[in-house]
Amino acid sequence: MYRGFLRSMFVCSLLLGFACSLWAKPGREFYASDIRESMEKGDKLAILMVHFGSAYPEARTQVLDVMNKRVKEAFPDVEVRQAYSARSVVSRLRAQGVWVQLPADALVELRDQGFTHVIIQPTIIIEGVEMEAIRKEAEQRKGLFKDLRVGNPLLYDDADYEAVMKAVSSPSGVTKNGAKLLVAHGTYHASNSAYAKLGYMFQTKGMKDYYTGTREGFPTIENVGEQMRQAGHKRVQLIPFMFVLIRGTENTVTDFWQKGLRQQGFDVDIYLKPLGENPAIRSLFIDHIRFAMKYKRATIFDRKKLYTH
Fold this sequence. Notes:
Enzyme class: lyase
CATH class of the largest domain: Alpha Beta
InterPro entries: Anaerobic_Co-chelatase (IPR010388)
Strand order of the largest sheet: 3-2-4-5
Structural class: alpha/beta
Helix content: 40-55%
Active site: 185 (proton acceptor)
Number of helices: 11
Signal peptide: 1-24
Shape: globular
Distance between the termini: 19 Å
Radius of gyration: 22 Å
Protein name: Sirohydrochlorin cobaltochelatase CbiKP
């Protein structure tokens, strides 16, 4: 019986050691796996930047094209392509004679051109509806490649939140006095809580003048207005919390908040620059690509296997 106990303890120690070596420090859903080390002679690596997209030329040239360029500069030996995830935007552009691919089209083309390893990096803000669609598309087409990975959205782990807090508070043009309010679309998806978390972290990290709000979810304009009023703020600067600004976005989100807060008695101005023009935000997306190159996302079934022995 004692020998059986020792044998069981030995097996458990082996399993524990295996688990410690397998799972990466960044979280249980990732494990160390360098994509370059898995490549053989003749294999080809590509990065597919997936943007929500924009039908406005200035947004594409000032934000999306610049993001793609920065990725190419960061990974000069890797092929960099782009695709838009918004079908409505792609259809509109194609009607104008501008050819932009959907992610599925881009992946098939990469396969046809001999690419064997691909990292998809979305410029999406939260792990919401868009990320869910991108991950599902990747899952459906993973058989086209030896290795297909999807990088994380802007806000994923706590380190991302802290990096974003630093990035949005540092650019010139962000006022030093008064309240700073980051406004986002918001979503019906459970991931909308990411915006509330960001606002809470601003407060707990001592950045008491920073708030977050959404057009289609919590925190609402009533919630945030009351918060700022209780803090004694009379002046508010709106900071769009979107990767790209388009005219429609300004009307439905920024204009909504500007009009609503003025009705509540606040003096309001707008910092009219999207997240995609912020160098620190672009760098964070590049860091996500580097992470995806070093770590692979495990499925829930992979994780459960560690606890079945």
